[in-house]
Design brief:
The protein is an alpha+beta fold. It contains three helices and four strands; from the N terminus they run E-E-H-E-H-E-H.
Length: 80
């Protein structure tokens, strides 16, 4: 069953949100890389957290979406 995740790029003023509809059993990391590519970013330098700042340990899209379908993405090179 597809799940919709909203990746909110905290440091992007123009297009801060990428919405992806992905399979529930897809690894969260794969969805994160897709969202980063759509923003023209390197997922390797970005950090994904739940709203409130709790780190996302990994798992499937289904596991992550049980806590929140909104994902905050932080680019440490911009935020500092």
């Amino acid at each position: 069953m597809p799940i919709t995740l909203r990746f909110i790029f905290i440091s992007e003023a123009d297009k801060p949100t990428v919405t992806l509809k992905v399979p529930e059993d897809m690894l969260f990391q794969e969805a994160f890389v897709l969202a980063a590519k759509r923003q023209g970013k390197d997922a390797g330098i970005l950090t994904a957290t739940y709203p409130g700042g709790s780190p996302i340990a990994g798992g499937t899209v289904g596991d992550v979406s049980e806590k929140s379908a909104n994902i905050h993405v932080i680019d440490p090179s911009i935020v500092g």
